[in-house]
Amino acid sequence: EAGVAQSPRYKIIEKRQSVAFWCNPISGHATLYWYQQILGQGPKLLIQFQNNGVVDDSQLPKDRFSAERLKGVDSTLKIQPAKLEDSAVYLCASSTSGRGEQYFGPGTRLTVT
Amino acid sequence: GENVEQHPSTLSVQEGDSAVIKCTYSDSASNYFPWYKQELGKGPQLIIDIRSNVGEKKDQRIAVTLNKTAKHFSLHITETQPEDSAVYFCAAVLEVGKLTFGQGTILTVHP
Q1: Residue from A70, A86, A90, A75 nearest A18 by CA
Q2: Cα–Cα dist A60/A44, whole Å
Q3: Which residues pair with B19 in a beta bridge?
Q4: Minimum CA–CA partner of A38 in chain B
């Protein structure tokens, strides 16, 4: 079975620019998560989707971050405008349901200069 | 919300030795405790987990123990091998699907 796919794998942008990340979850997985992993720290949940609805976005900085999962499959996470402190690895994960094991993608490493 | 503390931040052992990583959590209502292994350039991968109604679980060279009274849980790796070298994260789940991770432990196994 194919795993969680993410692109791009690496991205370098200047502060105040915008950037978007893409995630394709494991086929059939209803729940999708976006995490932010700052160097030397554990992943922090940004947003959780159940199909195409948001379950939890309490830790998403909504003034600059947005995410969507329009058809309940792929998802995009956008940052606009980016700040230096947004430099991190952005991980996407999926599970069959909110109670299931979460499978992580390889992540997108973002560097903001 | 939940808060998870993980120690040590780095751990260096000789091949064949045992390694122990410890975590504490803050909310006694947390009921699920997974452990993840993250290799360089990859996402975290679940290696073992334990639920709050179980005190210990073992899978080959890996075991996890849970002390609900003290609100701490530990990962034990026996007969370590160089391929065990990675970053290990503990996590706790208070709300369905919401993982709160520890800060991670960099494990290095020297041949």
Answers
A1: A86
A2: 10
A3: B77
A4: B103
CA–CA distances in Å: residue A105 to residues A39, A40, A70, B1, B45:
17, 18, 20, 26, 9
- The pLDDT score that the predictor gives to residue A99 is 77
Minimal C-alpha gap between B103 and chain A (Å): 5
d(CA A40, CA A69): 29
Structure confidence at residue B54 (pLDDT): 86
The two tokens of residue B76 are 């034990």
> Looking at the complex, does the CB of residue B40 fall below 8 Å from at least one CB of chain A?
no
Nearest to A4 by CA among A99, A96, A111: A96
pLDDT in tens, chain B (111 residues): 889 999 999 999 999 999 999 999 999 999 999 999 999 999 999 999 999 888 999 999 999 999 999 999 999 999 999 999 999 999 999 877 789 999 999 999 999
* Chain B from 69 to 98: CB within 8 A of any A CB: 89, 91, 95-98
Spatial separation of the C-alpha atoms in residues A88 and A21, rounded to whole Å: 12
* DSSP result, B10-35: EEEEETT--EEEEEEES-TT--EEEE
Strand partners, B56: B65
Residues A92-101: pLDDT tens digits? 999 998 777 8
Total residues belonging to chain B: 111
Contact B45, A104 (CB under 8 A): yes
